[in-house]
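I had to read the description of the data format several times before I understood it. The format is easy to grasp once an entry is in front of the reader. For illustration, here is how one protein appears when written out as sequence plus structure tokens:
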Amino acid sequence: MAPAARNEDDRHWSLESLNKAYKQGYMAGLTGQPITQHEHTASVLAAAWEAGWDDGHEQYALAKQRIA
């Protein structure tokens, strides 16, 4: 994506969209999906999704350890 398009996308986010991106990332991490699954073009939303994925993936890894 061109830098100008990315900058434009970064201007159009809200607290609600950040929360939604985080929750989607959390669920993706919690279910063992790869981090490359997100489709956010805005870097702020991508960062929120990845933060959620990190937290969810941590819980996924802990659950796998408990089972093993």
The chain is about 70% helix and 0% strand. The two ends are 42 Å apart (CA to CA). The mean pLDDT is 86. Helices lie at 3-10, 15-30, 43-67.
